[in-house]
Amino acid sequence: MAASLLNIAHEIKLDHDNVRELWTRFQTASPQDKPVIANTLIREMAIHSDAEEISVYNDYARLGLPDTAEHNKEEHAEVKKLVYQADSTSVKHDDYDSILGQAVNGFLTHAKEEEDMQHPKMLAHLSPEENDKMAREFLKARTMVPQRPHPKAPQTGGVAQKAAGTFGSVHDKIIEKLEGREYVELKYRHPATF
Description:
Four Helix Bundle (Hemerythrin (Met), subunit A); mainly alpha
């Protein structure tokens, strides 16, 4: 049974590692491959941020990180604005690589802070079963949130954000279908069943 328990820090870092790997891939990609990689980067950063806000951050106070959730939500709000700007700019724009790079760098700066400073504190307060439960809640949240950035949506982590996320998720799927957006495969994968 213990082998099947999930680790929340691992699942979060897996998202961070996908963004790192996608950014490296984008920087060396041909002009025709860049749009698909950029779509994937934007999708992954948007999903990750909202999923943390409606799941993991709600437990931070009881895990010895009382003011960290608000700090993280503020950082997410800034990153979401940058991701939205990249999503709203044509990949053919002369400064697109720089615009996307600002979003990725903001995301990865925040990710490093989580990995180095927050996750060790969080894990110290979790039993293996609580850790597994948080990881599964995070993975479930990833399936419920929008796939595109919505910086003006609620950032509360509560019911309002979940409701807006449900609406935004449906909206994003319709828009993406109409636009025919494509994505590249991710290098790192979450467990198929959680």
